[in-house]
Amino acid sequence: MTKVLVVEDDLKLNQIVCMYLSDYGYTIQGCLNPNEAYDLMHGEMYDLIISDIMMPFVDGFEFAKMIRSLNKTIPILLMTARDDIVSKQKGFRAGIDDYMVKPVDLNELVLRVEALLRRANIMSERKVVAGTLVLDADAMTASLDETEIPVTTREFNILFKLLSYPQKNFSRANLMDEFWGLESQISLRAVDVYITKLRDKFSACEAFQITTVHGIGYKAVLK
After folding, report:
1. What pairing do the DSSP bridges indicate for beta strands 133-136 and 208-213?
2. What is the pTM of this model?
3. Looking at CB atoms within 10 Å, which of 16, 29, 183, 217 has the fewest?
4. CA 205 – CA 187 distance, rounded (Å)
5. Are 145 and 188 in contact (CB under 8 A)?
6. Contact by Cβ (8 Å): 53, 87
7. Is the peptide bond before 103 cis (omega within 30 degrees of 0)?
């Protein structure tokens, strides 16, 4: 059973979220603040954490940092009334995986939980499969129809990232920051060069397409 921890100091909302997710087959544990969450996590393993930001004792940002320092892979979703970009930046930099603004649509919450768990499973298995394409992160190989396609480490990492988050827009700056890091003198156009290479190498794969999002960057679209 998939276990979800809900950390929310509004008791009524906490109960509603727990009941709703429980109806979808998840095992849910609710608590009212991070200190209670720490106690629960000492004796139980959870697959996903949903947390508010504004809570007593410890806020959601510090809670996320602490969780991420202990567990590099568990999905963390912040569910908060704060809709400003500064809070969103602070949350993602603390290590969260998703951010929802209250009042939340519970149907959308379920969809996001499903997506986060799917991505977590991809990372734990360290494989992405799209049709007959298999990306194996441990072996750093890309195989199409059981035939290995030669790729560089950077090509592999970019493709793995795009296919791990299908339909998600990635700006050139996002990709540059993650896969070029401190190579600050490199132009953003280097991303375009790598995307072109990937399109050429995997043109025979009918399961996905890397599409250009004009004015933003790129995304992978599953067919």
Report:
1. unpaired
2. 0.61
3. 183
4. 29
5. no
6. yes
7. yes
